[in-house]
């Protein structure tokens, strides 16, 4: 009962807070019109008072906007720090004409104070001209037009990062969380952090609470107390704060904070109305200082003093609710109890910097710099003296990244010369840059420009820029070719002795007509009236890509092949991907093969997995296979039609036609069975572009998938599921798997409401019910394909990304290992090793299982006893022998095989999975950005 009363009491607290919120909103609305009318006057009055007070001081010093970078003396340890120490903007300052003066004593009072307002007290400011003392000039949009730097007493704007000891202690005790930092592309001041086990992302709102983190960083965050949580967007009442603050406004905030000119800002912003709930310090005139709290918290962790888990999380859980539940689970409980509230928090430290920091693409803003230089042409000596302290700003093309400053002296010579020559067209150049530094004293990071891609209006520079900002390697492979055999190459004789020879089996490939990297082939044999043996044969790439070789390292770095328009950036050299490893017709090739004995119901009766030698008899395109399915191709017509493939070996066309039709019927049964088990499929048309001879797109069309596509897909899914099952049972802590989390429930409910608005019933209780509902909607909207396409597009938005993971990371949470879309408990990638690095890792693991199985059978003497007979396979067969795997002989065999094939440890495998996820996302974004450029 104590837990129940606690929840009730908590609900009352939240309700009162919400009532207070509504009252304050009413007051703000009533004053909005009068504030709007008097905005400029009040701002000028406030600034005038500040400057009048400054004039009364005896000691003055220069002060301008504090665009600066970290000092080596900064308190606290920056966990993810740069090894090099570039020139820091914190060692200099930005001055304008005329110089703004401020009292020395006032300035020193802020030296060690990091004012944290979370981007909230200023989030509704509008861009306004800034007037500087003693000047009649107004500097529009907050940017100082004369970009020169001079000595400056540093002022901290951000809280210092927690030391590594404090971070580790907070993570261990559940008082902080490690998370991936993601920025809203439509509003950079909104960032979200996903905590494992918590259904709702944590909002990090405003540049100050984001504490210099950028898109893709791995950060450590602390969650705010419940009273500071914001309302979900779309919920009744005030919506989630969407602070529309531009970088120019940030400069205004900096000027106000550094100058200590608080007058005219006597009350907290609406988003900080619960600031008194926080264990912080409210400064006079409504500014919130969290620096002292941050340092105290960090020092407490280092000294061994810390709050209890429940207190530090401020979750509001009452006695009786905390027992036997960890911090993430408590947070998950709170989000479920208050579904209209979104948790908020702040960044304590950056534990791993994003690769995107080194791959920024943007434009220089040089017009103001040109104006400044023109004004100072009369004093040539001064010009040459201050040139090294001048800077320009760089605006990234990706809106998730902040404006950056670039010192003119650090620009490449070719760009610097154009700048000195007054070439205004430099603003049209796409430039590559890296973030070098971002200190607690600077509102903007400092960047260095490395080179130019060319004019932004041309397609080729834009594609090269997209590849660069997603860190996609597009160079050749000269340094790794020594790892591959020379051509012509033949399979070594010993491989024929240790592998199953399948060259007499009718095996063929089905792929796109333009494909040259053929990594999968199919076969089928009829065993009886109601049973078949289906084979999937995958290129044995792991035979050539050995662990820890130069080729393996390069493949891991690339992680995936990237396809952009008519351009392919391969993961592996063409010598391997299109020759040695590709399952080209008419030549012997090494393969991994899986066979299943299936009945007419699509049930697996038995299976065999092993390394083989195959010889494909035919290369079919998807259109070829579709024509066979539809009866367009038959024996009589085949020789008279142009463009159809050539047969190799002893097999005839009738063998291929019979196999394709048989596989098609089996695939339909498997697909129906899979959908009956709850699988989901969101089909939408794909835009295909048509190019001229010069590679320039001139037209586009919609492309629909055909039955032949689904035929291949069904057997690839079966092979991937089988591989996942085998490797996860043999190596439960060392299997590289792929999971697909359940959809974002809030977005899914929004989609449900959208469908309800149009009178369309939607059942979201499971993936299977979801799919059936969409099928009924499709039937209902058969005469309105446009609306149905909109619905399918909307339906995909709640879906989360599928990701790779190490099985050992989720061994205690098996429910999180499943694949929502496929409705299967285990899944991995096995069928595309020529273009995906995770598949190579899975191949090695599978090879280790096969090797361990052979060793165990030899040690147990079963191979001698059953010589000449089919031996029951306990590790790769349909029934896994747990006792054999757990026996001393089994453990030894698995250990020896794992060492031989280089199976990574769980820790290393987790890193590989995380990196492959990042590279796969980068590949996807590159494709999407390229499509956007074409449409634009």
Can you give keywords for this protein?
single chain, 936 residues, alpha+beta, 5-stranded antiparallel beta sheet, 28 helices, 33 strands
Q: Please tell me how large the radius of gyration is.
A: 32 Å
Q: Kindly report how far apart the N and C termini lie.
A: 60 Å
Strand order of the largest sheet: 9-8-7-10-15
Strand composition percent: 15-25%
Low-pLDDT parts are: 1-18, 24-153, 237-293, 305-324
Number of contiguous helices: 28
Secondary-structure-based class equals alpha+beta
| Average of per-residue pLDDT values | 77
**What global shape is seen?**
globular
- Structure summary, number of beta strands: 33
Largest sheet: 5 strands, antiparallel
Q: Give the fraction of residues assigned to helices.
A: 25-40%
Structure, described:
The protein has 936 residues and is α+β, with helices and mostly antiparallel strands. The chain has a five-stranded antiparallel β-sheet. A hairpin with a 2-residue loop joins strand 7 (177-184) and strand 8. It is globular and about 90 Å long. The two termini are 60 Å apart. Residues 1-18, 24-153, 237-293 and 305-324 have low confidence and may be disordered.
